[in-house]
Amino acid sequence: MLQRSFIHLPGIGLSTEKKLWERGVLSWQGLQEFAPRYFSEPRLATILSRLEESQRAWTERNPWFFYRTMPRTELWRLVPEYLEDVAYLDIETNGLKLPPISQSTTITFFHKGELYQEHDHKKKEKLVKKMDAEAKFFCSYFGEVFDVPFLRKEFGLPLQKAHFDLCFWLKRLGFNGGLKKVEKQFEDIPQRQAMDIDGLDAVRLWQLHQKGMPGALDTLLTYNAEDTLVLESLLVRAFNLEVDRHKNCGMEKLPLPTMPKPSTSIHPAVYEHLRSM
Questions:
Q1: Residue 152 in 3-state DSSP?
Q2: Which of 90, 147, 163, 248 is the most exposed place for a label (fewest CB within 10 A)?
């Protein structure tokens, strides 16, 4: 789908793209050959130049180019091309304000089938740098607004990364609310260990851990992991919904992933303590 997309080219909207498809122009190479008969200067030169950039970015596997040039509503087209290079991200913090007023407590990434979690400051910074270097895309729920700006501020990193933010994408598809509320609307997604633990509880869990309560850190890491591990399932489901909405896109649905389980668990005594607070 990416190489038959023209929506990221200057002056080409959805209607023009559709007309080009109807004329049998179904690739960047096809458009390069057809464009001189369809566009006049200086628009032609601009489109041909952007096509060359597109081919170079695709060859170099550089999604940042397409992330910057493609409308946000059409970023779903990039999923098949970069799915294997997505790092799923969620952080917990001790407050809602940006650093230095607040700090992250735990950071979780899920990348290439591996779950990474840290709570020590230096190890968290090392993990963020590792994912920034290795992943082509980040995927989060509201992370473009909160998680990534928070990490930029806390660790002084640019973190210029292409990003699938499922909060806004799923809202456009009719799924409103927080992550767990949206997650519940997909009945085939396995239930969490504790669906009613929330962000305020995450702050309390970190405080309990600092006070030395056994199991508090494990419970927090489990909550953070579950927030992260569900993102892959939601990303694939969102993409498949887009395929349903765009019957003529020429794309097939992706197989639903198996959601792994965290290596930690919710400690019953800690959970009961939370519910009594």
A1: helix
A2: 248
Structure tokens at 29: 């190479």
Whether residue 128 is found in the same domain as residue 260:
yes
- pTM of the model as a whole: 0.94
Two structure tokens written together for 176: 């409103």
Same domain, 127 and 196: yes
In the structure, what pLDDT confidence band is assigned to residue 224 with cuts at 50, 70 and 90?
very high
Query: What distance in Å separates the CA atoms of residue 37 and residue 13, rounded to the nearest whole number?
Result: 18
Q: For residues 250 and 247, what is the distance between their CA atoms, to the nearest angstrom? A: 7
Q: Are residues 158 and 55 in the same domain?
A: no
250 pLDDT band, cuts 50/70/90, is confident
Pairing of strands 162-165, 114-118: unpaired
Specify whether 256 is located in the same domain as 156.
yes
Domain that holds residue 15: 2-60
Are 55 and 88 found together in one domain?
no
Beta bridge partners of 109: 89, 116
